[in-house]
Amino acid sequence: MPSCDILIAGCGYAGAVLAERLASQCGLHCLVVDRRTHIGGNAYDAPDAAGVLLHTYGPHYFRTNSPRIREYLSQFTEWHPVDYKILSWAEGRFWQFPINLNTFEQLLGRPAGSCTSEEMTATLAEWRVPIDLPKNSEEVIVSQVGWRLYELFFKNYTLKQWRRDPKDLDPSVCGRIPIRTNRDDRYLAENFQALPRDGYTAMFRRILDHPKIEVRLGVDYREILPHAGHHHLVYTGMIDEYFDHRFGALPYRSLRFEPETLPVEYFQPVMQVNYPNEHDFTRIVEIKHATGQRLPVTTIVREYPADYGPGKEAYYPIPAPEARALYEKYAARAEQERDVSFVGRLATYRYYNMDQVVGMALAEFEKLRPKFLRT
Fold this sequence. Notes:
By secondary structure, the protein is α/β, with parallel strands linked by helices. Helices cover 34% and strands 20% of the residues. It has a seven-stranded mixed β-sheet. A hairpin with a 2-residue loop joins β7 (86-90) and β8 (93-97). The radius of gyration is 22 Å and the shape is globular.
């Protein structure tokens, strides 16, 4: 087992970006290991048997407001611009979602284009529940739009996704979804919204394509740890696992994906349709709408929330007060670790977007650079 300067556990955004920065900017030999057999972490994509490019671990809609993050990733990919569009299926019809002026017209049974933003604002002021400081996800929505829209779009979807009542989850869970009084029907509001032109996996290959970076897949970092001499460890996995669950296991949610290939060009009118109140799945994703592939067939993916356990992936840290309190014990212990960086969603037990993880990795590099920069 060769020695290395930096041992990196995990080949997703956090691990790959730090490997690239430390190798290209500091000349350090980085050994990146991942227990999975592919690079890219949850952003991994690959064509299925029908040739449809799929996001294997659920849809990854890249967006950012940060020119710095966009410029960094643009070194390794060109972009395919996308306006991510989704609908919600409830009460036997498609609804515009996230909530916007078009949704308001649908709810009132008004013709398209007949309502104004001022009318919607005034009506929501009558519907909303006056709560100055929402303490949970139920309160954050009813304080903006009232009970009818909350129950139509949010309550049951959240119950399925998290297996917890929205009143038992942090405000940030439902608060992530925008509510607009104009006709902006995009799912996301960031200035830059796009997918890597050749896919995420191709982008990760380029990030990791450096003579000072070695990647080993299908290997747990603990198998290598006793044998590979290194000066610093970058850990991007579950923080409670790193510490052998000494304070107890942190709660996570998992997912199950059910793909189906169909002999039609498109199955549904948009990339994603939410099913808040029907079926066991939460959404059907047809990513071909976003990637722009031209094929006579399509593949849809039904997404089923699942409990985390043996044989399951930990997709989502649970944003609830007791989970946060347990994480803080691990965070305090992590601060005592010498020569270890904890980076990424699982290592910091937060639900970060992709650009936020890239930003976190770039910030960690700036912390490490003075220690390792070779002149």
